[in-house]
Specification:
This protein is of the alpha+beta class. It has one domain (2-105): Rossmann fold. It is 38% helix and 11% strand. It is built from five helices and two strands. The chain has helices at 2-9, 27-35, 52-63, 84-91, 95-105; strands spanning 40-47, 69-74. A two-stranded parallel ribbon has the order 1-2. α3 links the parallel β1 (40-47) and β2 (69-74). α1 (2-9) crosses α5.
Length: 128
Amino acid sequence: MAAARTLTENGITAAVINVPVIKPLDGATIAAMARRARIVITAENHTIVGGLGSAVAEALAEAGTSAPLRRIGIADTFAEAGSREYLFAKYGLGTQNIIEAVWRGLAINRPTPIAPVIEASPGVYAPV
């Protein structure tokens, strides 16, 4: 949500679809939104292989949409253990990474906006 707000504040209309589960995937909603988009970004806090990004890629391909897809998540690697902040920074899972993926994907020729710092209380899930 913070990435979408930052993008909107910088002239990029952004929509967020909450996908709480991969099965069953609401492919119709994803495809409908993608048809209106210049780029689709998926963001997940685990592996992109076989995860949300893969499921969305399949839905977009089957629907014949043309929006490019960029996946934010852990690449095909074994992950380390550590604090939420360390892991999000190491694997590029933060709000800033989402904004940068949009900026690169749309080839915007101006400085990338900086994501706001969102403080999370100890024991609270990451606010991305």
